[in-house]
UniProtKB/TrEMBL annotation:
Protein keywords: Membrane, Transmembrane, Transmembrane helix
Chain ranges passing through the membrane: 12-30, 66-90, 96-117, 129-151, 157-178, 190-212, 224-246
Protein name in the entry: Na+-dependent transporter
Keyword Transport: no
Superkingdom of the source species: Bacteria
Keyword Membrane attributed: yes
Length: 306
């Protein structure tokens, strides 16, 4: 079993591609997995925390204070800039503007530490940022919602963010306890096995997240390709801009990955159907650049790190 998980770790980037293909080509399987997404995301968080361990995490607690400015930049300044531009142009309530606002205002996806691992980076800064950004999301969304009343009340989103925070902290606590008392020194083979399990979990998760993509691709391929092009431009564009701004920063790789890979689904499960129904296809399309990040952007991250 450990050998098989190690094999999955070595080919993790291609496993994500296989998950995307399965999500597009097997709509029945995608629909069946969709109700299990909360549990699968929790398992992803557990695997990321298990890999890091409590010793490394506790040694970096002091860095949490330094994250305040970066979180504010990512989740307050950027979405307010998007909202202000859209308001000036009179297009705030259009689906494209809403999609951009959702991406800018969201916290990182739960799998961002796993994407960082697969891209050759250190997952610890990604986990720190993920926890901090999710904890303050109920506050950071307030000015965004004030500028964009069409999004509905902030209470539902705040409650969804609090639930996600509890899940993240709970999964992390259990994983750290296991590392402390059951698996204090997993060694290289153990770490590889954890990475392999994470890759498998991410491949399964993306199948469920792609539930809306396959039917749209078959019924209206032009619409699908238009949303897909927007998803690629936003995701990789944000990553490249963050990478250029953070060049030379020790945490450039995880922070750049986080810049483009945001938990949009958190908003879509909390807002009125009239707001998010037109964007379901965008959420599905956005999974594609997310899960292609290690394959497409990974070589760039590794070269800059080296």
């Amino acid at each position: 079993m450990i050998a098989l998980l190690g094999l999955a770790a070595r080919h993790g980037r291609w496993m994500l591609v296989a998950g995307l293909a399965a999500g597009l080509g097997l709509p029945g399987v995608a629909a069946a997995l969709k109700p299990w997404l909360p549990e699968l995301v929790t398992a992803l968080m557990f695997a990321a925390a298990l890999r890091i361990g409590p010793d490394r995490a506790s040694g970096a607690l002091g860095a949490l204070r330094g994250l305040a400015g970066m979180v504010a930049l990512y989740q307050v300044v950027l979405p307010l800039a998007v909202a202000a531009i859209a308001l000036t142009l009179g297009v705030l309530e259009t689906p494209v503007a809403m999609a951009l606002l959702f991406v800018a205002a969201a916290a990182p996806i739960a799998g961002s530490p796993n994407l960082t691992i697969l891209s050759g980076g250190d997952p610890l800064p990604a986990l720190r940022f993920l926890v901090a950004a999710t904890c303050v999301l109920p506050l950071t969304v307030l000015p965004v919602f004030a500028l964009a009343p069409a999004l509905g009340g902030a209470g539902a989103v705040a409650w969804a963010a609090l639930r996600l925070t509890v899940v993240i902290l709970g999964a992390t606590a259990v994983a750290f306890a296991i590392r402390r008392f059951v698996l204090p020194d997993p060694g290289p083979r153990g770490i590889a096995a954890i990475d392999g399990a994470s890759a498998i979990l991410m491949a399964v998760v993306v199948v469920g997240l792609m539930a809306a993509a396959g039917p749209t691709l078959r019924s209206d391929p032009v619409l699908f390709l238009a949303w897909l092009a927007l998803a690629f431009a936003v995701n990789f564009g944000l990553q490249l801009m963050a990478l250029a701004a953070l060049r030379g920063h020790p945490d450039a790789t995880p922070l750049a990955i986080i810049a483009g890979n945001r938990n949009i689904a958190l908003f879509l499960v909390a807002l009125p159907p009239a707001v998010f129904d037109p964007l379901l296809i965008f959420v599905a399309c956005y999974q594609i650049p997310m899960y292609l990040t290690p394959l497409v952007m990974g070589p760039l991250y590794r070269r800059l790190s080296a």
